[in-house]
């Protein structure tokens, strides 16, 4: 009997690793794939900027002011006669980093604090959430401005400013979900098994917050890029002649009717990146959703 | 009888339900009301009783999942509600729990291998390949195909989920296993397989079981002693054989009577069914809690609450026990 | 519940103190002296010193802070350096405008965001889903100063349907509310979508369908409330960011609101005015979060209200 | 799939035409498969059975054999996107449910046909009171007002034996014990007095007294309405007590089908025999329980011949090669075993 | 819309970026739109032609100046009524001046009066009155200066020197300048309504001594965004659009058939310049400063960034200012020579420097960016450091601000307003020039006391040559032209003499459109 059983079973658990599984399900999702490709294009543009940019992004030539997009200048020129395409390519270096780094930092801080606040409750919750209230109450723009005024305008300080402002929102969202999740039986099951609290946080609660976190993350990226733009608008963002998309978009505002391409091109770049991340986020969401696992 | 492994003293759990928004109305549910229970090493104590009478609540109290309103639970003589870190860890390792609801207690985002393997990794007993091997072993024990290791809980049928829960509870070779209806979702064949397994484990490792079930045949097969609960109170406690042969409390006898018999020819047999108003734990009737449905009710039952009295090694809480 | 609210409000007092202290310290760290800023370029240093003394700015910072708190406790928030008027009056006049604007924007973001999120679940991966995702992201990735200008150009200048700016009738409210609420609507839509998709896998959804509820009814009656927790949280956060982040919208649409006051105040180092306006928004944010926390109990009975 | 159902629309089962009017449910050639990355899982594979008005059909089988999926298929609630009904027809009171649009199906669900789910904990919406959840169906299908619906819910709560029904209306699922939740589920399903009730292990979480009460209730309602019940259970006792006909499933297929008396007296399929043998009884104690050796085969890699063959004690060589058909051995007793062919 | 029912059609609608805060000019150092219309001064400046101005009698009909230039006697116009009906008397003038100097007022504009005898004592609280001013009789005021001060009359013509009514102002207390009812002047308009950060309405004062204004009133709408202002203007909701707010719109208006004939322009008595901080190495070397001057193509900046609207300037005093020197030496654009100079100074490979840029002025940022590129051509690497105005000003006050570009327009028509402002020893520090030239310092003080104007202007021109050409301590760029676009119904719109956006609206009329 036993031998018969064995005979039928071909050993077949060549399970793929988590990552390959993830990769495969994204590959199957058309829009996520598209998002991936767009991101790859932007990332390689950022990495290879000096090799692919047709012009020096900082080269001022007043005689070439306000050139419409043409064969010579694919995306036109700005007020200083600088080539916009080259500036977009170089700008991707700054804007992608600004979109990603502070968002990741603030998400990490926010997720951690949110989990802790929601799970432990009581005093811990009180302290963390009231701090978050303070941060949120302080107009983010002002907080960012104060940071920049005090520390000076630099890329690092932009990171600090944006991260300081954004963690509170993530923390609140994560906390709200933790509040429900921690009452579930599988958490109780883990507790009586003697699973350590932080392991419960990471293994049981965190994965169940992932879908919301993905949304916050993918929307956080364009928001961070825009926050930098607003800071630039107020003069405390990336410093000229550096080209950040946000700065380009905001300084192009004046020419929105006279030379619309100056503002629209960087705007479209931001939108594309935002779309790409969101498509990818949706793909990831589906890939991580056990109910959709095929 | 051996040593007492775990013991509850005057254990009470009341749920305070604040009602809805801004509502002042307060309900108190006396889910477990003054329960004294001892579980002796290597025995199987079965708990039966009407649904909603507080069985799960009692089980949860025994494993420190709920804070009692009053009373204490002693595990090997120590109160489990204020154990120090090391002892608490030991307790969590030695006492395991099988949940009544097989699905809710499984994290939907974890694969079966991780769910069953979790106690192992938690107590640093096995990682990597070792964990895999152990998980395979456990899955085989409970009759799950090991190929399903990488599935998620929702991809299983109800009974399969139940078995995942059982496998997880067995992973640590516990001393005390608290089972809240562990086999109710299983078909008879698997059920007997699991029951055999539990018996084997007990024989081999001297496990102790606290076994909640509605299935009286299963109880009869498994239990050394049986405890019958009604509305938060223990109404009868005694040796399994004796209780089945000769119940003392009227409620117990009703239970025995109501059990379905797997013989269609007997379906029209005469049966006593409980009549009368169903008492509620929110508002338990005065006197004997069973009196509203008891056919033998007398005046005293309506006023005075019967004590759990000793009847030659058996205990029963009834003014007129059926001796 | 009432007790809970009272407790929360009392426990907010330290936050208010914290916020004021934070502003106080920050504004002292930040370079730039309010008096220098008030003065004409050719004023001599003596005058500056004199005015500083008159404004008690030469006293030690903790005394200044203490004075501020003391006065604030007596309902006196001081006089704006720049505007020369009592801070309380200025804020009291500006606040309703910001509140109206923020409320309108909030309503817009809910009315658009939630249905958009739902629709994109109903028609997952369809043209409609992509359309809403696109518009949502447009709202998030378009600078407010652009979208404002664009709307003005289209609806006020070209079509003449709406007034360019101002704040004296309901029509004036439309564009600023859209501009301010667009990004928020996007976030709400996306979050509603993801959260709904999450909930749709649950067994009770199946139960609801088994009762014969249509897909839409299941979504609205059963999935929505379960999925709303993160959404409500984000809404509360957005109240904060709308109140404090309305500067640019207020600027573009010439709305005399708190946001403008606050940014002007920081630029002119107008400490009393800044303190006042941030205190105001802080209170509102605290109330918003309190409302959200109360919503939690309403949305999910499992969250224990302790 | 559309072509398939067109062919089977004749309501013919095993060549016997069945009189239309006392037929409540006729399932023919139902196949519900899961399409996964690793392959196709035939969770329900060519299942056919009928339920006459006023009868109770029990479905019994190994856990994981596809009972719940059969039930979900009837309700049109197979978990998407991986699960699909790939063939078969489900005719409820003359209507082929497989052909109905989602909208028409909504009219049927909860009204003409309703279901009690296996897992009462997760099957109730945690954020609404149980009263509201029961009222919902009544409001939807019986066009009741809020107050009337509440009355109705209260009545149902009383019927299923929930103590202090008035108060329980306003509690949330997490405040109820397992058995109470299950009774809420039952109340919900019975609320609209459906023609067909599908009960997936409705009484597992109930103590025997309540169980008896519920079973009686179900029988009473059925008698009143001349409705039909499909009862999925593991409890042979329950089967013996209430069912008229029994269907035994194994690994997605029906292996035996018979009248309940016939089945208990004269079971033919080795699996059924094994099941009955494995029963613990109230009487006997001490000796080891019998259990069928081995495990349910992996549905992804089904053995070539009979699906039960690896575990069968009376298997012969041919069982590994040939897949048996369901054959009638007389009086509507069907069995899928090579021993009984021809 | 800006008009509500109660506002007459004959109301001029203009916009301002910021709320002025207060109409009290003693408390306000920037926003002069209100004071210029509701108050008047003893002496006024009249714009006779674009960029040309003359000093004319205001509330003082005539005045005498003593030979030593220290005593000024003003004979007030009689029968002038304040908005509250009070008649203007010498006491009001005494009160006004004393109020400014009274430390209790906490006035911000005391520097316009601090040359009056006894002003210091009054400001320090050592005296209860200002010794140098007294009412001789009801209509005569006598002001004695501590020292002769040539620009004194011009000083009196600035908005800061507006004359208040004693009775009304004392009664108003802290509400003066804030509460429309209590803010009383003699000007052709009075404030009717003030909604902070939203709008201010002024109405014509019927008993204005010069005759009631042609306008029924003025409404100043606070519109902080320039593009919104433009949109409001184009939709006909504003009568005037100030192109200084959005210079990039100039080509649009000039190219538009509808608007090209509606542009009113006037020179600005003012100029854009770069400051040079001599304390920052290597700008202590005159050769480096000269190289800096020569490396910047000012014409290109004017043509490309300012659409050619303006005039290159090589001096400190701009065209239109008394004493302007049209024949001053030119600063040539010569990058080759600039490079050579840098080699001479020991910087063959150039060096790095910082340019400060006020973050609230995108316009200067643009010039800085262009200059950054230009300096790169001669090997100088520029880092643009954006600072918010508050930080910038406080750094500047400490003499530590790096180069910055800014604009300066005349408050009053006198060279003192320019050269002294920047290069008097103390100012040279507080404005971060750190220019040290004893001769010039002496000459500046001397010029202030001179009474012969021709000679005085000569001296200023001499200093100018020394500072700009010899010491290369300042880089003048150009004097911009100020363009306004007005609705066709606006008549007699003139750009103020100094080119400010704040201006008196008396004299403007509106033509009823069909
Ligand atoms: N989403 C899914 N994806 C893949 N396989 C599934 C999925 N859901 C169920 N299955 C498989 O389908 C088979 C039939 O499941 P079903 O729930 O019908 O079993 P059952 O007969 O109801 O068992 P039980 O008595 O234990 O409830 C099981 O083997 C299960 O593993
Ligand atoms: N969190 C809670 N809040 C309020 N009441 C509760 C809560 N949990 C349980 N109860 C109530 O306590 C009583 C006992 O519940 P318990 O789950 O222990 O019953 P049980 O004996 O396990 O029943 P079953 O056999 O049906 O599972 C029930 O009346 C139940 O409604
Ligand atoms: Mg229970
Ligand atoms: Mg099932």
The gist of it:
The complex is a heteropentamer of chains A (294), B (323), C (306), D (342) and E (514). Chain B contains 10 helices and 12 strands. In chain B, 55% of the residues are buried.
Largest inter-chain contact set: B-D, 79 and 73 residues
Q: What's the total number of strands of chain E?
A: 21
**Bound molecule types:** adenosine-5'-triphosphate, magnesium ion
Gyration radius of chain A, to the nearest Å?
Answer: 24 Å
Classify the beta-strand content of chain A into a percent band: under 5%
CATH topology of chain A: MetI-like fold
Protein name (chain D): Oligopeptide transport ATP-binding protein OppD
GO molecular function (chain D): ATP binding
InterPro entries (chain D): AAA+_ATPase, ABC_Ni/Peptide_Import, ABC_transporter-like_ATP-bd, Oligopep_ABC_C, P-loop_NTPase
Domain ABC transporter (chain D): 28-276
Overview of the structural elements:
The complex is a heteropentamer of chains A (about 290), B (about 325), C (about 300), D (about 350) and E (about 525). Chain A has about 290 residues and is mainly α. Chain A is built from 12 helices and no strands. Chain A has a single domain (about 25-50, about 75-290), classed as MetI-like fold (Orthogonal Bundle), CATH 1.10.3720.10. Chain A has helices at about 1-10, 20-30, 30-45, 50, 85-120, 120-135, 140-150, 155-180, 185-195, 195-235, 245-250, 260-290. Chain C folds into 2 domains: about 1-75, no CATH class; about 85-305, MetI-like (MetI-like fold), CATH 1.10.3720. Chain C contains 14 helices and no strands. The mean pLDDT of chain C is about 80. With about 525 residues, chain E is of the alpha+beta class. Chain E has 16 helices and 21 strands. Chain E has helices at about 35-40, 90-100, 120-125, 150-155, 165-170, 225-235, 250-255, 285-295, 300-305, 335-345, 360-375, 390-395, 415-425, 425-430, 440-450, 455-470, and strands spanning about 10-15, 45-50, 50-55, 60-65, 70-75, 135, 140-145, 190-195, 200-205, 215-220, 240, 265, 270-275, 310, 350-360, 380-385, 405-410, 475, 480-485, 490, 510. The longest helix of chain E has 18 residues, at about 455-470. The model of chain E has no long low-confidence stretch (mean pLDDT about 90). Chains in contact: A-B, A-C, A-D, A-E, B-C, B-D, C-D, C-E. The interface between B and D is large, with 79 and 73 residues. The complex binds adenosine-5'-triphosphate (2 copies) and magnesium ion (2 copies). The site of one magnesium ion (MG) has 4 residues of chain D, from helix 2. Chain D: It is found in: Cell membrane.
List key phrases describing it.
heteropentamer; A: 294 residues; mainly alpha; MetI-like fold; 12 helices; globular; D: 342 residues; alpha/beta; Rossmann fold; binds adenosine-5'-triphosphate; translocase (chain D)
Task: Detail the topology: elements first, then pairings.
The complex is a heteropentamer of chains A (294), B (323), C (306), D (342) and E (514).
Chain A: H1 2-8, H2 18-28, H3 30-47, H4 49-52, H5 84-120, H6 122-137, H7 140-151, H8 155-181, H9 185-193, H10 197-233, H11 245-251, H12 261-288
Helix pairs in contact in A: 2-12, 3-5, 3-12, 5-6, 5-8, 5-10, 6-8, 7-8, 8-10, 9-10, 10-11, 10-12, 11-12
Chain C: H1 2-11, H2 13-29, H3 34-38, H4 45-54, H5 61-73, H6 87-122, H7 127-141, H8 144-158, H9 170-200, H10 203-210, H11 215-244, H12 247-252, H13 258-267, H14 271-299
Helix pairs in contact in C: 2-14, 6-7, 6-9, 6-11, 6-14, 7-9, 8-9, 9-11, 10-11, 11-14, 13-14
Chain E: E1 11-16, H1 33-38, E2 43-49, E3 52-57, E4 60-65, E5 71-76, H2 90-101, H3 119-123, E6 133-137, E7 140-144, H4 152-156, H5 166-172, E8 189-195, E9 199-204, E10 217-222, H6 226-234, E11 240-242, H7 250-255, E12 263-267, E13 270-275, H8 286-295, H9 298-305, E14 310-312, H10 335-344, E15 352-358, H11 362-377, E16 381-387, H12 389-397, E17 403-409, H13 416-423, H14 425-430, H15 438-449, H16 453-470, E18 474-476, E19 478-486, E20 490-491, E21 509-510
Parallel strand pairs in E: 1-10, 15-16, 15-17
Antiparallel strand pairs in E: 2-3, 4-5, 5-7, 6-7, 8-9, 9-10, 11-19, 12-19, 13-17, 13-18, 14-19, 20-21
């Amino acid at each position: 009997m036993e031998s018969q059983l064995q005979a039928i079973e071909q050993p077949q658990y060549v399970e793929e690793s988590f990552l390959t599984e993830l990769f495969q399900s994204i590959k199957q999702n058309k829009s996520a794939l598209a998002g991936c490709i767009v991101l790859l294009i932007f990332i390689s543009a950022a990495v290879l900027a000096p090799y692919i940019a047709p012009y020096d992004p900082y080269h001022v030539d007043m005689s070439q002011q306000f050139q419409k997009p043409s064969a010579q200048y694919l995306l036109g020129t700005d007020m200083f006669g600088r080539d916009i395409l080259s500036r977009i390519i170089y700008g991707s270096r700054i804007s992608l980093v600004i979109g990603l780094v502070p968002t990741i930092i603030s998400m990490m801080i926010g997720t951690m604090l949110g989990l802790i606040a929601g799970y432990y409750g009581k005093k811990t919750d009180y302290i963390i959430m009231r701090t978050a209230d303070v941060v949120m109450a302080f107009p983010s723009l002002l907080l960012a401005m104060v940071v920049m005024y005090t520390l000076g305008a630099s890329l690092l300080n932009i990171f600090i400013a944006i991260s300081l402002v954004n963690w509170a929102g993530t923390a609140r969202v994560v906390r709200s979900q933790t509040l429900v999740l921690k009452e579930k039986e599988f958490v109780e099951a883990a507790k009586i098994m003697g699973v350590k609290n932080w392991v419960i946080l990471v293994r049981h609660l965190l994965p169940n917050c992932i879908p919301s976190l993905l949304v916050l993350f993918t929307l956080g990226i364009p928001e961070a890029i825009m926050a930098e733009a607003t800071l630039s608008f107020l003069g405390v963002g990336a410093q000229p002649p550096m080209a950040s998309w946000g700065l380009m978009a905001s300084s192009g505002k004046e020419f929105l009717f006279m030379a619309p391409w100056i503002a629209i091109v960087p705007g479209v770049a931001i939108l594309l990146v935002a779309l790409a991340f969101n498509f990818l986020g949706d793909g990831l969401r589906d890939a991580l959703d056990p109910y959709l696992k095929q | 009888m051996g040593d007492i492994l775990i013991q509850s003293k005057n254990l009470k759990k009341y749920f305070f339900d604040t009602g809805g928004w801004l509502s002042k109305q307060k309900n108190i549910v006396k889910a477990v009301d003054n329960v004294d229970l001892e579980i002796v090493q290597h025995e199987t104590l079965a708990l039966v009783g009407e649904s909603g009478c507080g069985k799960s609540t009692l089980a949860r109290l025994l494993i420190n999942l709920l804070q009692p309103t009053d009373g204490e639970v002693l595990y090997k003589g120590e109160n489990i509600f204020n154990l120090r870190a090391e002892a608490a860890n030991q307790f969590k390792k030695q006492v395991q729990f099988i949940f009544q609801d097989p699905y809710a207690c499984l994290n939907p985002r974890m694969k079966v291998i991780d769910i069953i393997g979790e106690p192992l990794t938690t107590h640093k007993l096995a990682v990597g390949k070792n964990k895999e091997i152990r998980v395979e072993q456990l899955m085989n024990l409970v009759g799950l195909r090991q190929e399903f290791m990488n599935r998620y809980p929702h991809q299983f049928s109800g009974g399969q989920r139940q078995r995942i829960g059982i496998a997880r509870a067995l992973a640590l070779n516990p001393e005390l296993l608290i089972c809240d209806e562990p086999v109710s979702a299983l078909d008879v064949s698997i059920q007997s397989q699991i029951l055999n397994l539990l018996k084997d484990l007990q024989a081999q490792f001297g496990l102790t079981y606290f076994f909640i079930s509605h299935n009286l045949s299963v109880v009869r097969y498994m239990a050394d002693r049986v405890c019958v609960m009604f509305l938060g109170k223990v109404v009868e406690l005694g040796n399994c054989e004796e209780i089945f042969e000769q119940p003392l409390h009227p409620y117990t006898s009703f239970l025995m009577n109501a059990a379905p018999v797997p013989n269609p020819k007997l379906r029209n047999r005469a049966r006593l069914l409980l009549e009368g108003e169903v008492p509620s734990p929110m508002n338990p009737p005065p006197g004997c809690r069973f009196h509203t449905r008891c056919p033998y009710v007398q005046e005293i039952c309506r006023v005075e609450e019967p004590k759990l009295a000793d009847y030659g090694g058996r205990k029963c809480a009834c003014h007129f026990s059926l001796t | 519940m009432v007790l809970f609210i009272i407790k929360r409000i009392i426990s907010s007092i330290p936050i208010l103190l914290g916020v004021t202290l934070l502003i106080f310290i920050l504004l002292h760290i930040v370079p730039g002296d309010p008096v220098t800023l008030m003065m004409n370029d050719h004023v001599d240093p003596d005058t500056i010193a004199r005015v500083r003394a008159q404004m008690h700015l030469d006293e030690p910072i903790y005394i200044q802070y203490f004075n501020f708190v003391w006065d604030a406790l007596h309902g006196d928030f001081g006089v704006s350096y720049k505007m020369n008027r009592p801070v309380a009056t200025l804020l009291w006049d500006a606040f309703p405008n910001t509140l109206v604007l923020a409320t309108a924007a909030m309503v817009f973001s809910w009315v658009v965001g939630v249905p958009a999120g739902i629709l994109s679940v109903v028609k997952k991966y369809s043209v409609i889903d992509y359309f809403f995702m696109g518009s949502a992201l447009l709202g998030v990735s378009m600078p407010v100063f652009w979208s404002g200008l664009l709307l003005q150009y289209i609806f006020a200048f070209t079509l003449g349907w709406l007034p360019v700016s101002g704040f004296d009738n309901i029509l004036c409210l439309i564009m600023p509310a859209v501009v301010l609420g667009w990004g928020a609507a996007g976030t709400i839509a996306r979050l509603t979508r993801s959260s709904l998709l999450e909930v749709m896998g649950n067994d009770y959804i199946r139960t609801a369908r088994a009762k014969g509820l249509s897909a839409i009814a299941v979504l609205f009656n059963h999935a929505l409330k379960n999925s709303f927790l993160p959404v409500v949280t984000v809404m509360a956060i957005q109240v904060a960011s709308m109140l404090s982040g309305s500067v640019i919208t207020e600027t573009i649409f010439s709305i005399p609101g708190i946001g403008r006051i606050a940014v002007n105040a920081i630029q002119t180092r107008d400490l009393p005015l800044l303190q006042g306006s941030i205190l105001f928004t802080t209170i509102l944010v605290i109330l918003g979060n309190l409302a959200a926390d109360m919503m939690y109990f309403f949305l999910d009975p499992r969250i224990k209200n302790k | 799939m559309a072509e398939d159902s067109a062919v089977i629309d004749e309501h013919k089962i095993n060549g016997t035409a069945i009189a239309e009017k006392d037929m409540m449910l006729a399932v023919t050639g139902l196949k519900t498969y899961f399409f996964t990355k690793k392959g196709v899982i035939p969770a329900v594979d060519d299942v056919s059975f009928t339920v006459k008005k006023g009868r109770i059909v029990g479905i019994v089988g190994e856990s994981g054999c596809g009972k719940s999926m059969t039930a979900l298929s009837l309700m049109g609630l197979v978990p998407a996107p991986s699960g699909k009904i790939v063939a078969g027809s489900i005719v409820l009171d003359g209507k082929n449910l497989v052909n109905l649009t989602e909208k028409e199906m909504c009219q049927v669900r909860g009204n003409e046909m309703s279901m009690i789910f296996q897992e009462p904990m997760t099957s109730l919406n945690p954020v609404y009171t149980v009263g509201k959840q029961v009222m919902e169906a009544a409001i939807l299908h019986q066009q009741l007002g809020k107050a009337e619906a509440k009355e109705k819910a209260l009545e149902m709560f009383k019927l299923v034996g929930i103590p202090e029904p008035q108060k329980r209306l306003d509690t949330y699922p997490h405040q109820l014990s397992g058995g109470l939740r299950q009774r809420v589920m039952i109340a919900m399903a019975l609320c609209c007095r459906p023609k067909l009730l599908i009960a997936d292990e409705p009484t597992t979480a109930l103590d025997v007294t309540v169980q008896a009460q519920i079973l009686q209730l179900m029988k009473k309602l059925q008698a009143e309405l001349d409705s039909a019940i499909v009862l999925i259970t593991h409890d042979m006792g329950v089967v013996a007590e209430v069912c008229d006909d029994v269907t035994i499933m194994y690994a997605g297929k029906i292996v035996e089908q018979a009248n309940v008396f016939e089945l208990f007296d004269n079971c033919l399929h080795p699996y059924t025999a094994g099941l009955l043998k494995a029963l613990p009884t109230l009487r006997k104690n001490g000796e080891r329980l019998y259990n069928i050796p081995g495990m349910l085969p992996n549905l992804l890699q089904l053995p070539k011949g009979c699906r039960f063959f690896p575990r069968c004690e009376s298997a012969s060589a041919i069982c590994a090669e040939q897949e048996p058909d369901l054959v009638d051995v007389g009086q509507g007793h069907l069995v899928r075993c090579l021993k009984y062919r021809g | 819309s800006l008009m509500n029912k109660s506002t007459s059609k004959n109301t001029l609608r203009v916009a301002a970026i910021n709320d002025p805060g207060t109409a009290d000019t003693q408390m306000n150092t920037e926003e002069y739109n209100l004071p210029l219309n509701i108050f008047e001064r003893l002496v006024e400046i009249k714009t006779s032609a674009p960029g040309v101005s003359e000093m004319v009698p205001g509330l003082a009909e005539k005045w005498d100046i003593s030979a030593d230039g220290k005593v000024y006697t003003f004979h007030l116009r009689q029968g002038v009524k304040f908005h509250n009906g009070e008649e203007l008397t010498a006491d009001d003038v005494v009160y006004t001046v004393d109020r400014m100097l009274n430390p209790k007022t906490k006035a911000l504009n005391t520097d316009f009066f601090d040359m009056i005898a006894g002003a210091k004592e009054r400001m320090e609280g050592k005296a209860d009155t200002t010794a140098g001013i007294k009412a001789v009789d009801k209509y005569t005021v006598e002001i004695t200066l501590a020292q002769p001060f040539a620009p004194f009359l011009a000083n009196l013509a600035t908005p800061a020197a507006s004359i208040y009514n004693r009775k009304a102002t004392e009664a108003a207390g802290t509400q003066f300048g804030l509460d429309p009812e209590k803010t009383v002047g003699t000007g052709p308009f009075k404030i009717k309504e003030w909604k902070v950060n939203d709008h201010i309405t002024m109405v014509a004062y019927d008993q204005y001594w010069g005759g009631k204004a042609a306008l029924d009133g003025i409404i100043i709408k606070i519109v902080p965004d320039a593009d919104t202002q433009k949109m409001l203007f184009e939709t006909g909701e504003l009568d005037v659009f100030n192109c200084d707010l959005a210079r990039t719109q100039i080509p649009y208006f000039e190219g538009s058939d509808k608007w090209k004939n509606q542009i009113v322009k006037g020179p600005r008595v003012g100029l854009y310049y770069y400051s040079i901080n001599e304390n920052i190495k290597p700008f202590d070397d005159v050769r480096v400063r000269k190289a800096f001057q020569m490396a910047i193509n000012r014409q290109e900046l004017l043509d490309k960034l300012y659409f050619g609207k303006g005039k290159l300037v090589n001096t400190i005093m701009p065209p239109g200012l008394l004493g302007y020197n049209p024949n001053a030496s030119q600063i040539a654009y010569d990058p080759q020579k600039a490079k050579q100079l840098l080699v001479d100074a020991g910087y063959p490979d150039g060096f790095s420097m910082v340019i400060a840029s006020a973050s609230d002025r995108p316009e200067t940022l643009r010039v800085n960016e262009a200059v950054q590129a230009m300096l790169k051509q001669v090997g100088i690497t520029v880092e643009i450091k954006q600072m918010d105005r508050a930080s910038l000003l406080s750094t500047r006050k400490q003499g530590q601000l790096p180069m910055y570009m800014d604009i300066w327009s005349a408050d009053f028509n006198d060279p003192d307003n320019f050269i002294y402002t920047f290069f008097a020893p103390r100012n040279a520090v507080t404005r971060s020039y750190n220019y040290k030239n004893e001769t010039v310092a002496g000459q500046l003080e001397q010029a202030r006391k001179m009474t012969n104007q021709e000679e005085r202007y000569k001296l200023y021109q001499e200093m100018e040559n020394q500072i700009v050409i010899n010491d290369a301590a300042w880089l003048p760029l150009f004097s911009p032209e100020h363009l306004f676009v007005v609705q066709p119904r606006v008549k007699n719109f003139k750009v103020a003499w100094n080119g400010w956006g704040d201006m008196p609206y008396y004299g403007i009329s509106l033509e009823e459109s069909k």
